[in-house]
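Hi all, posting the design record for the shared folder.

TITLE: backbone redesign
STEP: 1 of 1
STRUCTURE INPUT:
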């Protein structure tokens, strides 16, 4: 009998439960836990800001109306309006107020980040040496009416006219 017990103990079989699978990425784990909003299921409508820099996004007949205002102070600013379409985490922005200014911004659920390099045409939206490049703003509100009320430094409404 003792030999049988020893033989069973040495068989190498383990009765420990399987470990849970590790998440494929830290971001996926945060989305699953509800810590970070899932950009694929989040509407970009709203008002975004960092300090005095702001972006508004409101629904339009074709996709979204977007307005961007960057205020460096001392007459250094950028102000532009246009349209945006969304594909996953990408907002394709075309500033109609600065013809030829078209770029892909990153939408991360509660943050919009513009690329560090923009077309030269985007300079038309800016005074002096101001720039829209690498602007990153976080959501303040998801209210379309608050976003539509955004004005630039000259009082122009940037997202008015959304549906």
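Okay, here is what came back for every position:
SEQUENCE:
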């Amino acid at each position: 009998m003792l030999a049988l017990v020893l033989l069973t103990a040495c068989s190498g079989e383990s009765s420990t439960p399987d470990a849970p699978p590790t998440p494929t990425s830290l971001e996926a784990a945060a989305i699953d836990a509800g810590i970070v909003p899932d950009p694929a299921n989040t509407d970009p409508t709203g008002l975004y800001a960092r300090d005095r820099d702001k972006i508004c996004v409101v629904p339009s007949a074709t996709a979204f109306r977007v307005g961007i205002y960057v205020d460096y102070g001392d007459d250094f600013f950028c102000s532009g309006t246009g349209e945006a379409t969304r594909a996953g985490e990408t907002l394709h922005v075309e500033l109609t107020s600065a013809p030829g200014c078209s770029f892909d911004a990153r939408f991360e659920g509660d943050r919009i980040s513009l690329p560090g390099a923009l077309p030269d045409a985007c300079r038309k939206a800016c005074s002096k040496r101001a720039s829209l490049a690498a602007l990153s703003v976080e959501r303040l509100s998801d209210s379309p009416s608050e976003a539509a009320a955004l004005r630039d430094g000259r009082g122009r409404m940037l997202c008015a006219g959304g549906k």
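COMMENT: The mean pLDDT is 86.
Let me know if anyone wants the other runs.
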